[in-house]
Amino acid sequence: MNRSRFAPYLYVAPLVVLLAFVFGYPVVRNIEFSFKMVRGIDGPWIGLRNYELVLGQSLFWESVSHNLLLLLAIPVMVAVSLLISILLYERLRGWKAYRIILFIPYILAIPIIAVVMKRMFQFNGPVNEVLRWLSLDFMALDWIGSSDVALWTVMLLIIWRESALGIILFLARLLSLDESLIEAAKIDGANWWQRATRVLLPQMRGVIEFFVVVSVITMLSAVFAYVYMIGGGRGGPGTSTMVVELYIYNALIRSSLPGIAAAVSVMLLAVSALLIYPLFRVRSRDDGTGR
Amino acid sequence: MTTGRWNGTLSRRRFLQTAAAGTGGLALGGLMPSLAAQAADTTLEMWWWGEQELPGLQAFLDESVAAYKDATVNTMLQDTAVVISQFQTAAAAGKAPDIQYLWNGIYHMESVWLGYLRGLNGLVDAEVIKASNPTLLSQYGGDVYRVGWYPIPMLWYYNKELFDQAGLNADEPPKTWEAFLAACEALKSKGISPVGGGIQDGYWGEWYLGHALPQNLDSVGEALDLFIGERDFRDPKYYALWTKLEELKKAGFLNDDMSSLELYPGIDLIVAGKLAMGESVGTRLPADSKATDGQIGVMVMPVYGTGKLAGKPIMDTQGLGIAAGSKNPEAAAAFLEFLHSPERLQAFWEKTGWIPSNTNFDTSVVTDPAVKAMWEDWALSPNIPYVSNLTPGQFYEQAMVPAAQQVIEGQITGEEAGDLAARVVQEWRDFNPDLVDKYKSWAKDLA
Asked: What predicted TM-score, i.e. pTM, was given to this entire model?
């Protein structure tokens, strides 16, 4: 009896131990480092000093503000993804080919598309050349070389790439819906907008919430590759594209401050954990409703 | 020897293994001499970097290792991002390589302060150290910690053809700031971008500080005073470098795409005849001079400052050091000396097309007069170290690079750049109270 009760735990124990070692140990060490002035691979205990220094530094708060600003991309991503997925759902001619084309940005590695994008958006690059050719000189901005514009360029790249995930998620949900509802709405005389907003969207609430939560986590803790590539590897020009992840990277690799990097990592982990909670709530609710 | 990392104690297991091996060896009799010879072999571990910036270095090293008979040398090319951290982690764990590639200044001095590097005085032939020009920035506490491997002359390029087009004397690049501004004006009036490059990836800002800050310094140690609090970036004398940059920006002398171009594409503009002047490095000169049929000239940054270091050629050197944990430092030192033997210096040139860092190198093999002249002016004449190598990483990332970028895009003035630098220096002192004392000691060495 007891044996069968414990058997499942024994089966998963090796994997749990492995995961605890691979993920748990580094997290514990990271938390420990955040209270130390680390030099090389260890250092003296300094209590909350690392946290005090970080929280008192304007660059850290500037990095946080940039992450928060990137959240503005999420409504745009949701809108774009919804619009395109519903258009595809309407079975436009060649919709399967469009679906593949639209998902390609998400398959390509961020550095690859960022390098291409960077060339496109140089001051004398193809985008500005076209704008000048169209006599739209006032729109030919210094996309990656101006502190006022660079973060928006990063955001544009993020919207373009991350919307691909939204399109696929939303389209998958749409294709699983009962089409008789749409047919009934059509027979009742509902136009495209009414069908989209009154019939389709209410049934997609779960997947939209899921995409929003994942996107929030992405904007706060997974945009390193974008800013690293577009911001010249440094969050530039100036500090205009500096985000929390790059702050951590710089502290650890370029400033030899593992304790500081650890303190910020712990704070970022805490914020991410708080955001993962609603994600699980959404998923568990969806599981319950079958969405 | 070193790879075995035997800690000196003999465990029961090891004793039994040794006894068994010994008995077996005696039984084999005739094989004994060869086994003994194998055991006596010296093995060195060498971690290096440089193929990334000097193609051909791998081939040179492979050939050198094969030609070296006094030890077996195992080499490992490191990734750029981990050159320092990989060594420091290994050293802390007692598993450092015997020989480690070391960038100059603070990039290896932190390892010195952590006790991971061995002083080379008395270990490596003093003549070899001197001829290799490890530079002043490798000295700390009366010892030297690197042997120079290959030199990086820091210089400015100018395009002779564009100078001709603007009616300037292509054999006499401007030496003073006034002459420089006049040249810029002449070039601009002909529709030629006078000066600049690319700063999107930030390195241009580092190079710029390396060229400009010394102009108001009387000694290299004075640069360190800026970090330990003895001097202040808010002093006009020390933020003048960014004021001069602001002056160029306001006059419209910088290329308009400078903020969106990276360092090397920016230099390519000079080679392509689209930009008249800008920062570069000597390692590029052989290829660029050949590609332009001798149209690339080299110059020292025009002088605006009044410090004793103003107007001097700047020479940086990449180098090699010996880990404090090396079990066979003498063998490591012998290999470093071997790399500086006349035969190896010639091989270096043949494999890389670049000059090795050794003042005894026979330059008769260098056929390009521009390269030869540059070597004589930068390496064999009085030169100064590259002071950007003194700046802490935090200052590099949060002040040196952002300040130059923001001045160039017109976001801040030179004076505001000085304020930014002073604030970041103060933060660096708060973040690194232990390093401030090290910097103070270092400043005495470099005074």
From this structure: 0.89
Q: Which residues contact B256 (CB under 8 A, 6 or more apart)?
A: A123, A124, B193
Query: In this complex, do B405 and A238 lie within 8 Å of one another by their Cβ atoms?
Result: yes
Give, for all 291 residues of chain A, the pLDDT tens digit.
Answer: 456 788 989 999 999 999 989 999 999 999 999 999 998 788 999 999 999 999 999 999 999 999 999 999 999 999 999 999 999 998 888 888 888 888 888 889 999 999 999 999 999 999 999 999 999 999 999 999 999 999 999 999 999 999 999 999 999 999 999 889 989 999 999 998 999 999 999 999 989 999 998 999 999 989 999 999 999 999 999 999 999 999 999 999 889 899 999 999 999 999 988 888 877 777 677 665 544
Give the ipTM: 0.89
Residues of A contacting chain B (CB within 8 angstroms): 37, 39-42, 53, 57, 59, 121-125, 142-147, 232-234, 236-239, 250, 253-257, 260
B392/A255 Cβ within 8 A: yes
Nearest to A123 among B81, B260, B434 (CB): B260
Which positions in chain B touch A143 (Cβ < 8 Å)? Answer: 260
Nearest partner of B77 among B113, B53, B47, judged by Cα:
B47
Q: Is B226 exposed, middle or buried (0-12, 13-18, 19+ CB in 10 A)?
A: buried
**Strand, coil or helix: what is B399?**
helix
